[in-house]
Every structure is written in C-alpha cells, then in structure tokens.
Structures
1.
Amino acid sequence: MDNLQALHNFWSGFGLKAYDENTVPDGAMATNNGRYLTYNAYDGYFDEVLGLYASLWYKSTSWSEISQKATEIGETIGYGGKLIYFDGGAMWVKRGVPFAQRMSDEDDTIRRIHLNIEVEYLKI
Amino acid sequence: MEYTKVAADAFQKLQMNAGVLVDSFNPATGVIGNIIGATTGGLSFASNPTFTDFGEDVDNVPANTWQLKRIESYDPVISGTLLTVTPAVAKLLTGAADVATTKITPRAQLTEADFADAWIVGDYSDNNDGTATAGYVAIHLLKGLNTAGFQLTTSKNGKGNFAFELHGHYDLTSIDTVPFEIYVKAGTSPATPSVTLNTHSFHVAVNGTQQLSATTIPAGTTVTWSSASTSIATVSNGLVTGKSNGNTVITASITSGGVTYNDTCTVIVP
C-alpha cells in the first residue's frame, strides 16, 4: 500500500464514502445517502509538512450530524496527531488550525464542513 | 548526493510530541501516574555529566585521553514551563515547603519528602496506539528537586507561566545509582478490535429470557445490541426476551476507529 492509498483508507475510515476531490462522480450525494467526503492529496518526502484538507458534504438543513462527524474525525486524529503507516514509511496526520470550518453553499439544503490537516511525511 | 540519506526505518524511531510530565510511570504496562501539570514549549532533559581528566596536568599526556577520563557525577535536570498550578504543584515548585490546604509555606531546611521522582514520557513512532502496546521514550528522574525556585511570570491577557528545573539527586543509601534512567520501547501492534458472544445459537420460550454476554477487544468497549426482528425477540443490554414463535438474529456491535465490528447469535423461539 502506498502513501496515497493509505491516505484514502484513512479518510474512508469514518463511515463515509471518500473521494479524491478530482474524482467525485456526478450524483455522489444521491448514491451515498446524502453524505460523503472529499479530500485532496499530495505526495511528500521525509521532514516535509503539507497542508491538506478535506470536506464533509451532507444533504441536510441541520449542522448537527455533520458537526458530530467533524468532531469524531478531530478526536480520531487527536491532540498529538495520528501516524498512518504504509509500505516504506508513515505519514503523521495532525489537526490544522482552524481544524473545522463551516462553509456556505449555493444549495441551502447542503451542509459542508472544511477540515484542515497537516501531514508530515516520514518516508524516504 | 551520496551521503544525503535517511535510514529506511527512520519513521519507526522518532520521538514525537511534547510528552507529559508525570509523577510515576510503569514501563512494563505503559501506564502513567498523575500528570503534574500542563506544560508549554515542550520539556527538556539533560543528563549533564561532570568529567575529570586525570591526564590534564600530566606532562607528555594529551588532554582527553580516554584511559584517564573519569565521570565524577551527573546533574540530570528536567526543565520546562508549567501552565497549571495546584497547591501540590506550588509545593513542588517551591522545593522545601509545607502545604496546609491552600497555603504553601517555604522552609529553610530540606527533608527527604521534598525530593520526588518525576518522569517525562513521550510518544515513539513505532506503534503508538494502546496503553499496553504503545511505544514510548521515557526518562525517569530520581529524587527531583526544583532548584530554580518558585517562579511565576504573568502576562496581559495571557496565561501565567511557572518555569522549573527539576534536578535529580543521588542517595547516600545507594550512592552508585545515577539519578536518572532512560527507557526506549518500540510499540507493538494493538490487537484487532473484536466482539465475541458467549453463544451463537440458543432457544428461548415466549416471554422467557436468556442473558448474552459479549467479550470485546479492547476490553470494556461499549456494545450495541440489536434484534433483526423485535416481534420474535428483543434484546436489551444482552438480555434476550422471546416474543413470538420464529427465528431471528441478535447482533452485538462495537465501533473502533470509525469501523464497526459485529458478532451474531441465532435465537429460536419454538
């Protein structure tokens, strides 16, 4: 498993369908029961820290559930971050600042939360 | 570049994060005692050996000849800045002092009780999840005493800072024991989470009950119970109650790391 697959698996571990932001299919909201996650991904090398992000997308007029999911992800990463291992290295995922931001959307029935993370690559 | 390299396993051998300052730590179990306080700016440790060079003043012998070098003693020190304070912490910071509920009274004489062990315990990058399995870097300071004196620095609209320097001390009853120890332990993979029921099939009469029990890894994980057909049997905290004739499935679930794990049991209500 390479680092980008490991990052995909990390984002897929929260009970939501996760898409690389460049490969979100049309109708993703409908095919995923009105909720999914998008993320961006960059490769890196030892001692490099990248600012990456993800977005939670919920078909809802309430912030309650989506905020709970953001909290769950934040708690999983934890205060000290989380190491995600892959073949030949690991990535140290840390919460960015601010970690979770509510975003507006043209469609008032969609709730989106933007998540900032820092990823420090520990691979040669 | 021939010599610009990183070892392939470097990612498994890193000390990570600021670590915690605690009053005790069990290296065998990985369990920390009480956190002395929240710190800022990380923690520092230095062993500070003092050397004597017996060749220093000897003619025709160069300085730093290894056969003539001796270690006189160590002055190990943990230093840092605390953000939180309690009467106990204020006593620790004061050094020689007595505590009477809210009042900390400095003393001119030191007693043995003024010297207390302290630990820095920090994460290690090779498997750092799970109390019993996480890797750590730990430093044990023996008979620590804050020799920097009680220091409080306040700031406008900011939190107070309490700088400290805990020095380790030798003990006359064990004079060869150097007053610090270092532990480096690679972690092991935590066991895969699971839930296992004590039985996977049983009969229960209408209005009869049967208690199911679930064993979880990690132990103590909250179990969620459900019945595929509550008209045939219901379940509450593992207690199954037959409702009407038929078969149904009871599911015990746990969630760990965002992943759900299940075990099932077939219930027959004859």
2.
Amino acid sequence: MIRLFVVPVAVFFLAAVASHVVTLSMLPSTIMNKAVDMLADRGLPFHTFMLSPRATPQSQSVVRTSPDVAYSICLFDLADGPVLVEGGAWDSYGSLNVYDGETDNVVAIDLGPDEPSVTGTVLALARDQDVPVPEGLKLHVLNHPQGVALIRRLSPTDEYYARAEEAAAGDVCQKL
Amino acid sequence: MMRISAVLGSLVLGALVGPLTALWGAGLMGNRSPMSFADVSVEGWMSDWSVGSEAADPYLRARIARHGLLAMRKEGAVYFVRNTDDDGQSLTEDCTYRLSGGDQASYWWSITLYDQDSMLPMNDDDALSFDASDVATGGAWEAIISAEKPERGAWISSKAAGMYDLTLRLYRPTEGVLNDPEAHVRPPSVQRLSCGGEE
C-alpha cells in the first residue's frame, strides 16, 4: 500500500522544487520585461531619452515618484547593436543609471559640477564588445539585450525643472 | 490507470505549489508596504537596507527586483519611511504635526508625503515635500504637516491623504550612513500638535 504513494509523492516534490527554482530565477527578468513593456505601451520610444513631466498628483504614473527630481528615461535594445547613453551637462545633483534585463543597476554615473567628466557609457552584448568606444567613455557588457537608462536631476522647483529641461536636451541614447 | 492519474495529479499539484512558495519566499504575495521588509530602524524611520544593494540570494534578488525596481545604488540614495508620529500614533490627515530636524548626513535630502497607496495625495496645494533647498542656511529647520495651510512657515499638505507615510530620501549619503545607519542618520522628529481642529 505504501509503495503506491511513493512515486506520486516523489513526483510532487520534484515538480514543486523544480518549478520553485525556475520561478525564482525568472522573477527579475519577468518583472523587468513587464516594466519595459509598460513604458513602451505608454509611448516611450526606444533609443531616445524622454523627460517626464514634473511629478504632481495629477501627472504621477508610478508609486512613490519623487516630486523633487526630473526623470529622463530611455529604453534600449542591444539586439541590433551597441548603444551610447550620455547625460547632458548639469550643474547640480544628478545621476545616470542603467538597469539591465534582470533589474540590476549595472551602471551608476554621478552627473554634476563636482563629478569627474565621465557623463556616459557604451552598452553592448558580449558579441559586440569590439565596438569602437568614444574617448573617455567605458564599455559595459550586458547579458540581456533590453533595459532602461534613467537620468535623475535635482528639480525641487519649477525654475530647477526648466533648467533640467534644457540639460535634458543634451541627453543622448542612440545606437552606434 | 489509477496510478497514472495519481502521478499526473502530483505533477500538476507540485507545479502549482512550487511557484506559489517561490513568490511567498520572496515576499511577493499580497500587497506589502515598503516597511514590511525594513531591517534598519532609526527612531521611527525604517528602511529596507537590501534595496540598492547587490544580492546573490535568489529570494532577495526577486524581492529587490519587485520592491526596489529602478532604485539607485545605496551610494546614490537611501530611503527611510515612517507612518507614525513620535508617540507611535498613525499619521493621519485629521491631525497637524511639526516636522523638525537638522542637517542631514548627505549631499541633498527630501521628505515627501505619500498616501496608503504610495501615491502623492490628490490635492493641488503644490506642497508635496520639504527638502534641503527649503532650508536657507542649514542647521535646524521645521515644517508643518497639515491639511490646511498654516499662517506662516514651511508646509507639507496632507489634504486628501487619509492615513499616510513620510519618505526621507538621502541623496549621496555619507560613508557613515552607508556603514552604520543607526549611528549616523539624523532622524527628523514628527510631533503631533493637534487633531480634529483641537488645539
């Protein structure tokens, strides 16, 4: 009688453990894919930085958005080749962050007057890492083709935001 | 035939239980608040210190992916949340509070009010937050949190917020904050002044 249950119980545990591990490993990429799809559905194009409107109760589209920061967002896809991302000159607190297809923050560059002159990076898949990189910039090899580049600029007032708009005009996100 | 059915049933059941336990283990079941995973607490201000960190643990990776999506590295910013006043009472639109503090251990900082859905409260008061740029000369500062604009002084509007929380963001925190937040974060005070129109 006991032998009748051995195989089904073993199958249950094997299936549970296998699907547990697979689910856990896929969660970050699933979450990032959903985020990229959501941003694309809202009209955000690939390979172009778009400055979000100043966050207000009426304009907010994500939870816990900061009303004191101007956000420039670029979706990128390395499947067709490397991508250059750069932040336009900014004289206050700012940062450029790149998030890969598993949500990892793979590049973090401080923008602003006190920081080194590096304001960008080249992103590529391993197969494209022989791409010529502009002087002064580094190449970052990513494991997943799609991701998000996000520039934050301190913007607590309308005056700051107007200046952030001018700076964002110099943001670059383009295929090489 | 019965044995094959039992094996297939076990397979399906296992394939259902596995993903559910993965979601539960990663803390992704249900609508959890940002404070659910807090492991740092400084006088009422709480922080999930894993957000902005690199994690090898697959459960932690999944949780950070969900709750810290597009968050900055800790060197860029750290976040603290509180939903109670200094006496431990829940923050509510019905009460008026004095928010006060001093210089923060960071390049820049801000305090923003969010409702229970983690959204900015739906009002048009243009008083959503208080930040370092509101402090003229550094040192001690204070602001009033209330549904109605105070006669004078800095103000964070809680109009239409219901029960709410405050988020303290420290941008480019000091090494001390990164290494030992309990010792180096200078937590602002939230003192309840009145409720329901009472003085």
